[in-house]
Amino acid sequence: MKNEELFKVYNTSFDTVEKIIDIFFQGDFRYLNLHKEIVVSGFIDNKAICIEQENVKINVPEKPRMIIKGPQKDIKQAAIELLENNGFEINGFEIQIRGGIVDILASKENRQIAMECGPCRVDKAIDYLEIPNTELWILTRKNKSSEHILFKITRGENWFNFLEHHKKYQFNYNKKSIENAFKTA
């Protein structure tokens, strides 16, 4: 299907796609997939996904509570501080859920946070929100100081209806693709 048709199916706009690209890719286009951006944008424009943006200042102590290694260690340290300061318990790092790997998984009471530290795949928004009581948080670095931007991605008021629309479209699209593959001349 052409992208123009997909915009109509998901009743979304290119402006929302551009916002999604800024939030999820942060200049790292390894994850770019216009089809998936259009789909997630449809969830947003149809009030099935909500995104809240916060500027946060996170002071990581000189001797952090957990030692993290690897290329994202600074932003992961900041994410740990943010989560723990908000009463969340860290359940693990690089945890595989719903076909993806989340940087940090945390929980508090019946609420679970899948925290991404920096750029990530856009369809994690749908995949992770399909898990009951789960939110996707994306922490980005605003500058070299302790300032960051946090995006909280949660289910919207139209989540279940639009998810049904999405799954029905995906099923019909896949069915049509399979039928076309097995057509004989």
Describe the structure.
This protein has 185 residues and is of the alpha+beta class. The protein has one domain (3-181). It is built from six helices and six strands. The chain has helices at residues 3-9, 14-25, 34-45, 73-85, 124-129, 159-181; strands spanning 49-57, 89-97, 100-108, 111-117, 134-141, 147-155. It has a six-stranded mixed sheet, with helices on both faces. A hairpin with a 5-residue loop joins strand 5 and strand 6. Helix 2 crosses helix 3 (34-45). The longest helix has 23 residues, at 159-181. The protein is elongated, with a radius of gyration of 18 Å. The mean pLDDT is 90.
Amount of beta strand: 25-35%
- How many angstroms separate the termini? 22 Å
Largest sheet: 6 strands, mixed
Helix content: 25-40%
- The count of domains is 1
Give the strand tally.
6
What is the rounded Rg?
A: 18 Å
Shape: elongated
Contiguous low-pLDDT stretches (5 residues minimum) are none
The overall pLDDT, averaged over residues, is: 90
Secondary-structure element string: HHHEHEEEHEEH
Number of helices: 6
- For the biggest β-sheet, the strand order reads 1-6-5-4-3-2
- Class per helix and strand makeup: alpha+beta
Indicate the topology:
Blueprint: H1 3-9, H2 14-25, H3 34-45, E1 49-57, H4 73-85, E2 89-97, E3 100-108, E4 111-117, H5 124-129, E5 134-141, E6 147-155, H6 159-181
Parallel strand pairs: 4-5
Antiparallel strand pairs: 1-6, 2-3, 3-4, 5-6
